[in-house]
Structure to design on (186 residues):
């Protein structure tokens, strides 16, 4: 068992197979299977995205000033770029699976916010779209500068780090009502 747990890819594969088995067991039909798979994917990617958002805001950003200068490259050169990879793709796949799920449920018009019975999920969808936009078009471009992944002088790096942090805080703020809206719509 230890060898299996040492291999992250194998752990993920076994977890996916177990999840699909759970989806299929009680309700199998092509329609419920599709909804079940996309609902699970939506939650999986959402946990990845928001979990990393909270990691950055509650752990990494507040802790960085306490880390000795000689140890900071361990975070900025190794941990942060990898975490940002999963962060931005978690955002993209959360939105994609959420839109597919809205279509499968017949709630794609929820984005229009004109149906009171679906307004809350529509608000959650809009908040998620704003947050995903922030991830891809503000946070990530600025993090590339701040982490030295693209060329920038020290002043530009400091300015980019602040812009990324403030936008990440906006996403943290928006995530609270977004999570409420997305979990209370049925």
């Amino acid at each position: 068992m230890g060898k299996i747990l040492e291999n992250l890819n194998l752990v993920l594969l076994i977890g996916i197979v177990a999840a699909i088995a759970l989806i299929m067991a009680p309700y199998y039909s092509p329609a419920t299977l599709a909804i079940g798979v996309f609902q699970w994917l939506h939650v999986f990617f959402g946990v990845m995205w928001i979990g990393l958002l909270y990691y950055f805001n509650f752990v990494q950003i507040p802790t960085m000033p306490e880390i000795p200068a000689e140890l900071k490259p361990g975070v900025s050169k190794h941990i942060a770029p990898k975490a940002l990879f999963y962060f931005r793709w978690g955002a993209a796949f959360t939105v994609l699976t959420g839109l597919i799920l809205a279509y499968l449920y017949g709630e794609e018009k929820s984005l229009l916010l004109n149906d009171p019975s679906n307004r809350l999920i529509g608000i959650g969808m809009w908040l998620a779209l704003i947050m995903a936009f922030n991830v891809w078009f503000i946070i990530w471009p600025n993090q590339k500068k701040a982490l030295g992944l693209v060329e920038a002088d020290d002043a530009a790096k400091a300015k980019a780090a602040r812009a990324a942090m403030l936008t990440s805080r906006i996403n943290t703020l928006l995530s609270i009502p977004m999570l409420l809206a997305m979990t209370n719509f049925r």
About this structure: The CA atoms of residues 60 and 165 lie 11 Å apart.
